Amino acid sequence: MGDEPVMATNDDASECKRGAVQLGYWTDNYIPYFVRHIERKAPEINRGYFARIKAVDNFIQKFINRAGSNAQIINFGAGFDTLYWRLKDEGIVISGYVELDFPTVTSKKCYTIKRNKPLLDRIYEQDGEVRFSSTDMHSGNFHCLGVDLRNIQQIKEKLQQAEIKFDKPTLFIAECVLVYIESEWVNRLLQWLSSAFSTGFFINYEMCNMNDTFGDIMMGNLRARGCNLAGISNCKNLDTQKSRFIDNGWSGAKAWDMVEVYHSIEPAERARIEKIEFLDEQELLIQLFQHYCICIGWLGNDFADFEIGM
User: Fold this and answer.
1) Which residues participate in S-adenosyl-L-methionine binding (predicted)?
2) Are the beta carbons of 165 and 72 closer than 8 angstroms?
3) Helix, strand or coil for residue 64?
4) Alpha-carbon dihedral angle through residues 193, 194, 200, 201, given to the nearest 10 degrees
5) Which residue, 85, 137, 222, 238, has most beta carbons within 10 Å?
6) What residues have CB less than 8 Å from 117, skipping those under 6 apart?
7) Given this model, what pLDDT does residue 219 score?
8) Residues marked as binding for S-adenosyl-L-methionine?
9) 257 phi, psi to nearest 5 deg
């Protein structure tokens, strides 16, 4: 089976996001370029994606507010993520933005960007020049690069091509990515990042509390689709999520399950999305939320005070 089922999780996630956006959970003008097909998902899935998007965006905004225009973003396993364009729409200026994913995924993304003028125009606005290869795209401050995240040397080379500065404040994002990589390789990646960058902040969205019946069912479903959860040992609980950062040279880490995250969202915003679809099974939503988390890690002390509150 190889890596194909893992790559297919990008298509699934993108379809879920497109469906939730269409229903009005949040606004994303760019996801329709990457996803044509929409399949109606269960309300608890849509609420799960809403909470995930809100939580990740919350920390991204906190990081950019603190780091300013010096900020760099490196998005691991970015898939069809549209964050770069959404930040542009908000008028946010940062020093550099790099997406890393399997070459098969980045080649599709590069092709989509090339074919859709609104996507390309937003890149041209700032940079005036965009260079494509079959799997990579370079512009002045946006780079979409094909790489195997298990290959640290390859990552180093790609980041050098993207002119990433190791002394600038850097945000690392991984959403359901590390769990598909052997723990040994994740540890090497986190160790290298903590030694190479002087100041940084990592947002990791992933499974947690997997040592129960519900977790077994989740793992069974993923394995049935051919997804080998090679890094699942770090998803036992919130402590294993945090210790992964601490053990690999990061200055500190915090973690919250998605129940806590969901309740940290402004009550008015929660009330708005809860009216979009009737949710029959509150219990199922809570179970889902108990099995996903946001974990943050930081290098240096610049971002040590960040909390989940929105």
Assistant:
1) 52, 77, 148-149, 175
2) yes
3) helix
4) 90
5) 137
6) none
7) 87
8) 52, 77, 148-149, 175
9) -75, 165
The structure tokens 């401050």 sit at 141
- Name residues whose C-beta falls within 8 Å of residue 195's C-beta, 6 or more positions apart in sequence: 249
Q: How far is Cα of residue 88 from the mean position of the Cα atoms in its chain?
A: 18
Token pair listed for 306? 């960040």
- 3 state DSSP class of 51: helix
Point out which residues pair with 131 in neighbouring strands: 138
Q: Which residue ranges make up the annotated binding site? A: 52, 77, 148-149, 175
Q: In 171-297, where does DSSP find H-type helix?
A: 183-196, 213-224, 238-246, 258-264, 267-274, 282-290
Entry pTM: 0.96
Task: Pull the structure tokens for residue 262.
Answer: 């969901």
- Domains of the chain in start order, with CATH, are 4-299 (3.40.50.150)
Q: For residues 253 and 274, give the distance between their C-alpha atoms in angstroms, rounded to a whole number.
A: 31
For the chain, how big is the Rg over CA atoms in Å? 18
Give the Cα separation of 65 and 190 in Å (integer).
Answer: 24
Distance between CA 165 and CA 199 in Å, rounded?
11
DSSP 100: E
Question: DSSP code of 24?
Answer: T
Count the residues in the chain: 310
Mean pLDDT, 10 residues at a time, over the chain (310 residues)? 74 91 96 90 95 97 97 97 96 95 96 95 81 93 96 97 97 96 96 98 96 90 84 94 98 98 96 94 92 97 91
Tell me the DSSP string of 67-79: HGGG-EEEEET-T
**What count of other Cβ atoms lies within 10 Å of the Cβ of residue 101?**
27
pLDDT at 6: 76
Q: C-alpha 39: how far from its chain's center?
A: 22
DSSP 8-state assignment for residue 212: S
* 25 exposure class (CB count in 10 Å sphere: 0-12, 13-18, 19+): buried
